[in-house]
Automatic annotation (TrEMBL):
Belongs to the peptidase M14 family. Keywords: Hydrolase, Metalloprotease, Protease, Zinc. Residues 234-549 form the Peptidase M14 domain. The active site is at residue 515. This is Peptidase M14 domain-containing protein.
Length: 815
């Protein structure tokens, strides 16, 4: 896989001498440094002119000098045309602007002092030559064709086997198949050798990418302002996200605060987000916290667009819409549009679009981690590394939740590589920190594509949480707005180490993944962003409110005390209440490259959040004290015995071979009846049949009285089929037997032993209750109160005067 033959590596060419490297501006001017080349005399900026020494990459970095930080931004322009080449606008003075340049190209590097006290900043510029790796086997290196195919996966186990091939499996799929991206001939060979049946969905992904880019240019040229909250008409660049977030904060300083996450990326970029709340700086005000984020995966540009538009929605709505104003007033909102900043920069800056021979970076998914690659691929900047898209960790397999199990890559080059350890990556550490330090009651992580609202768990053999009906109801409600399918994550296929499989099971904060649109990773802006967000055709949410309305439902849920827990009591002004919890959660047994497993790793989490008292009564919105991981598993108490086994008699004769069911209806039909309460209570039924040779193939479909297929089993290479339905409604059903293929049609291998077996529902299981440790410290930090606090979802717990009367709080604990 990957960019072999066309891959490139970088040679650093040192430039600018030390004296040149200090840039100065005596005033700060809040402006978009990337907008244009400023006059040499303009205040608040400084420039250098350079000539590129290479055909390759420029990297322009800023670093603060002498402790004074401030906020400087940088932009690189083509001198002849004034066009922007690269820029970086994060919140401090640590910037990395990176893009492609031509040898001899004249450049203007412009640094702008946006805010803060630092009058000077250090500029470092590197040019990196891009050189073909190795000798191409032919002159005119063959361009690798990227395509999308739909792979037939009649049974769940087929999808899991498909994942094991290390191919690029999307979220667009259903019970019987899933779309897979084949990047090159190596991928095509892998799939062909696997024996899976597949059909082409899009024979030329490059062409689609070029067409989509052209559509985007036309749309942006034609439309002044879209119906989005910001009016935006095209995909933003990383520096535009950074700049717009800080402008939102600067223009709405009481309502919006921009912040830098704790861990810079592998390439050294600052990752930025905004917090939105009334009196935003008082982060310890006890309101529930709603997090919306995007772009764990580099190529999924609509994800960050939806996230930043949501930030605009809240800010605009706060001024203009009383309902939004009320919701914003009762919550705190954190928006991190781009979690994987390195990867996004590479995918977004790839030019020309659709030229996957050039570094295949437009379709990059992972981050820029290089340490886990083979030694010869460990060096070189991400945009110019010889490993192509192969290098990197999948940030959405790197969280601790069930890490190391099914549905994640074990080797460095897998598109779903889980990383060297849980939370080995800066991207996942950043999100972990937010979720661990704040009471994040609600979280949406945005991805593309497949039109799905996914809820935990991501892996089938983790039973649903005890509160499954509540989580499902919230997912269903959001799906009624965007028109997506609301399903448990494992419904499509297994994944482990994903965001909410950690955040939900460790904190109880509701967490969902949205897979936006059905057309691709970053298809036409007008559809994937404007239509999906606002809920107009061709989006599935047309007329239903779209993702805008789904996000508002999530925010309403955050604002609803019945959906989380609340601590009430009273505390003197200036006293600090702290909730603490430490626990260990095992990962999955850790799958090894040879397929064996090693014991789970125990990951220690520390949750520490603070409420700062303003004096008198308080109400602090928190997550339940017992983790869903511990609380128990969903189930149902049997209300009666299961139904007795029924045999399915094989009708005389053998139907003609049919590889095209249901298009061709030729089959055998064997009716059976499912009973219900009060006589019996069936938790599931299993229909099974057998025959002699694994080279013969019978397929089994179960239909209800309306003729709808309710479950099926259509595998190949076995001498049996087994179809399961959970909680089957009472009624008339039929087993449909399709004679797919006979080894020896003259001597038919007929099916036998047909039966329907019924089992009781599995009752719920309950775990122990967990507590938080609540402490109170006075104005000089002395511990003045301590109590254990148990809080269930929806419950309000009165801890009384915990700062002045711990005894009373302790009594509360014993009740
Ligand atoms: O694979 C992922 O990380 C997510 N899909 S994407 O196509 N955007 O990469 C979804 C993870 C959860 N999905 C399943 N468990 N199927
Ligand atoms: Zn994704």
């Amino acid at each position: 896989m990957g960019a072999a033959g066309l891959a490139i590596f970088g040679i650093t060419v040192p430039s600018a001498t030390a004296a040149d490297n200090v840039l100065r501006a005596d005033q700060a001017v809040a402006r978009a440094c990337h907008a244009s080349v400023l006059s040499r005399r303009a205040s608040g900026a400084d420039q250098r002119e350079l000539t590129s020494t290479v055909d390759g990459l420029i990297q322009a970095r800023l670093a603060p000098r002498d402790g004074a930080e401030g906020d400087w931004d940088v932009a690189v322009f083509d001198k002849a045309t004034g066009k922007i080449v690269a820029a970086s606008s994060a919140l401090r003075s640590r910037e990395l602007a990176e893009s492609f340049v031509k040898k001899g190209q004249q450049l203007v590097v412009q640094a702008c002092r946006y805010a803060g006290p630092a009058r000077t900043v250090t500029l470092g510029v590197d040019f990196l030559a891009l050189t073909p790796q190795g000798t191409p086997t032919t002159t005119g290196t063959p361009v690798q064709r990227a395509e999308v195919v739909r792979v037939q996966t009649p049974e769940r186990k087929d999808k899991n086997r498909l994942l094991g091939l290390g191919l690029d499996v999307t979220e667009k799929g259903d019970a019987t198949g899933v779309e897979v991206v084949l990047a090159d001939d190596a991928d095509r060979k892998t799939l062909r050798d696997s024996g899976f049946q597949f059909s082409t969905v899009n024979p030329d992904l490059s062409r689609t990418a070029r067409e989509d880019a052209a559509k985007d240019r036309v749309y942006a040229a034609k439309v002044q302002a879209s119906a989005l909250p910001s009016g935006r008409t095209s995909y933003r660049h990383l520096y535009e996200y950074e700049y717009e977030l800080k402008e939102l904060a600067r223009r709405n300083s009481k309502l919006v605060k921009a912040f830098t996450l704790s861990n810079p990326t592998v390439e050294g970029r600052d990752v930025v987000g905004v917090e939105i709340a009334t009196d935003v700086d008082n982060i310890a005000d006890g309101k529930p916290v709603n997090v919306t984020m995007g772009v764990h995966h580099a190529r999924e540009w609509p994800a960050s667009e939806h996230a930043i538009e949501w930030a605009y929605e809240l800010v605009n709505g706060y001024q203009k819409d009383p309902a939004i104003k009320s919701l914003v007033g009762r919550t705190r909102n954190i928006v991190v549009p781009i979690v994987n900043a390195d990867g996004f920069s590479i995918s977004r800056e790839a030019e020309p679009k659709g030229d996957f021979s050039r570094f295949d970076y437009e379709m990059k998914r992972k981050n820029c981690r290089a340490d886990d690659s083979p030694p010869n691929l460990r060096s070189g900047v991400c945009k110019a590394n010889p490993g192509g898209r192969d290098r990197g960790t999948d940030p959405n397999r790197n969280y601790a939740g069930f890490w190391g199990g099914a549905g994640a890559g074990v080797t460095w080059s897998s598109e779903t590589f889980r990383g060297s350890a849980p939370f080995s990556e800066p991207e996942t550490r950043n999100i972990r920190e937010i979720v661990s330090k704040r009471q994040v009651t609600n979280l949406i992580t945005l991805h593309t594509y497949g039109n799905l609202v996914l809820r935990p768990p991501g892996v089938a053999d983790v039973r649903a949480p005890l509160e499954e009906p509540v989580v499902k109801a919230l997912g269903d409600k959001m799906a009624s707005r965007n028109g997506y399918d609301s399903i448990p994550s494992w419904g499509l296929y297994d994944t482990t180490g994903t965001t909410e499989d950690w955040s939900y099971w460790a904190t109880g904060g509701f967490g969902f993944t949205f897979e936006i649109n059905t057309a691709g990773f970053h298809p036409a802006y007008e559809n994937a962003v404007v239509a999906e967000y606002t809920g107009v055709a061709p989006a599935a949410g047309a007329g239903k409110g779209g993702n805008r309305a789904a996000f508002l439902d999530m925010l309403s849920n955050a604002a609803d005390p019945a959906a989380h827990s609340t601590l009430i009591g009273s505390a003197p002004r200036g006293y600090q209440l702290k909730l603490h919890k430490t626990f260990q959660t095992p990962t999955s047994p850790v799958v090894q490259p040879d397929g064996t497993t090693k014991p789970p790793i125990y990951v220690t989490d520390k949750l520490d959040s603070t409420y700062s008292s303003t004096g008198g009564r308080f109400a602090w919105s928190i997550n339940p004290s017992t983790r869903p991981y511990v609380a128990g598993r969903y189930g149902r108490e049997p209300q009666g015995p299961p139904q007795a086994t029924q045999t399915l008699a094989n009708p005389p004769g053998v139907p003609a071979e049919n590889t095209n069911f249901p298009g061709n209806p030729v089959s055998e039909r064997i009716p059976f009846t499912v009973k219900g309460l009060p006589e019996v209570d069936n938790g599931r039924f299993d229909v099974s049949v057998q025959w002699t040779s694994p080279n013969t193939d019978w397929d089994l479909y179960i239909v209800n009285s309306a003729g709808e297929v309710v479950t099926q089993s259509a595998s190949g290479g076995t001498n049996s089929e087994r179809a399961t339905l959970l909680d089957p409604p009472a009624g008339e059903y039929a087993a449909i037997m399709v004679n797919y293929d006979q080894v020896d049609p003259a001597n038919p291998d007929d099916w036998a032993n047909g039966k329907v077996e019924f089992s009781s529902p599995i009752p719920p299981t309950y775990g122990p209750k967990e507590a938080y440790t609540l402490t109170c410290t006075d104005r000089i930090g002395r511990l003045v109160g301590i109590a254990d606090v148990y809080a269930d979802r929806g419950q309000t717990v009165d801890v009384g005067e915990v700062c002045t009367n711990s005894a009373r709080a302790n009594k509360q604990r014993r009740r």
